[in-house]
Amino acid sequence: MREALAGIPEGALVLAACSGGADSLALAAALAFVAPRMRLRAGLVTVDHQLQEGSAERARLVAAIGGELGLDPAEVLTVTVGTAGGPEAAAREARYAALAEAADRLGAEAVLLGHTRDDQAETVLLGLARGSGPRSLSGMAAESGRYRRPLLHIPRSTTVLACQAQNLRPWHDPHNEDVRYTRVRVRKQVLPVLERELGPGVAEALARTAAMAREDADALDEWAAVAYENCALSDIGGSVTLAVSELEKLPDAVRRRVLRRAAITAGAPSGALSATHVLAVDRLVTVWRGQKAVDLPGGLSAVRRYGTLIVAISPIA
Predict the structure, then answer these.
(1) Which of 21-30, 60-69, 85-94 has the lowest mean pLDDT?
(2) Which residues form the tRNA(Ile)-lysidine synthase substrate-binding domain (predicted)?
(3) What is the pLDDT of residues 201-225, one digit of tens each?
(4) How many CA within 13 A on the CB side of residue 83?
(5) For residue 260, how far is the Cα from the chain centroid?
(6) E runs forming strands in the chain
(7) Which residue ranges are tagged as binding site?
(8) What is the per-residue pLDDT across 112-134, written as a single tens digit (0 to 9) for each?
């Protein structure tokens, strides 16, 4: 916790996002202990997703525990979960929107999340199953904007012991046992099989792999940012023009990052832009046979003309 809070200015407010489970409850208790010793203010927010009977009362009890720990403010954030992207994605979107609003309203310098090493291992396995590439395999970042994850290198078992040592009674969310959810199946079925068949330490190895993949992905992204500036002839008004001669000099991994950035800069929604889209644009550079424009999300097209690659709103004149 001390490492996670390092660099936050004295007197700043730090919020713990707490569901009442062992991970986030241990997180909140650690914040309550460390923050005053670092001359920081500490608070707690808990999100009521309104998806289960009695959720409002449970959220109220979590906020009350925050008050007992000395966390102030200790608030309940009530959200309405939509349906887009499935129940897990919709709940996550609603939760993060509520956390961002609370952080802005309260003037919080940081919001702490209770993800553990086990959560990281699950995230890596899900990324492997989707074939999402090294950025997805890098898992969750220890620090991302205002969000920090102090427990990312700690096993879930440690948070359970921490709660027991402090006489804190975590709430066990029944959704965490429901195998209809993909992440629960990974936790309850896939990881135990891997541990049994490959030996103990799989979760730790996956988390270590995530850390190494993140370092590599960060380095490639930095390289691609510089390469984009060298390749871009223009990126004004929703249209990006790149020099093919410069793109051809780049390694595949860097060039495709440049192409993805060009598409997003031109207006393609990042969530809808798939690896298949990027590979199709890449072939305009690497396997040029006079092919037609490539359609991209957001009503865009990519076309090669006179030694340039143009990404713009369709149709490209």
Answers:
(1) 85-94
(2) 242-309
(3) 999 999 998 989 889 999 999 999 9
(4) 0
(5) 19
(6) 13-17, 41-48, 74-78, 108-112, 143-144, 147-148, 232-236, 239-243, 294-296, 300-305, 308-313
(7) 19-24
(8) 999 999 999 999 988 888 766 67
Tell me: pLDDT of 30 over 90. yes
Contact 22, 164 (CB under 8 A): no
The CA R_g of the chain, rounded to the nearest whole Å, is 23
In CATH, 2-209 is 3.30.360.10:
no
- Give the rounded distance of the alpha carbon of 72 from its chain centre: 27
CA 25 to chain centre: 21
Is the domain covering 237-313 a CATH 3.30.465.60 domain? yes
In 177-307, the DSSP E strands lie at 232-236, 239-243, 294-296, 300-305
278 close to 206: Cβ distance less than 8 angstroms: no
In angstroms, rounded to a whole number, what is the distance separating the alpha carbons of residues 317 and 303?
A: 10
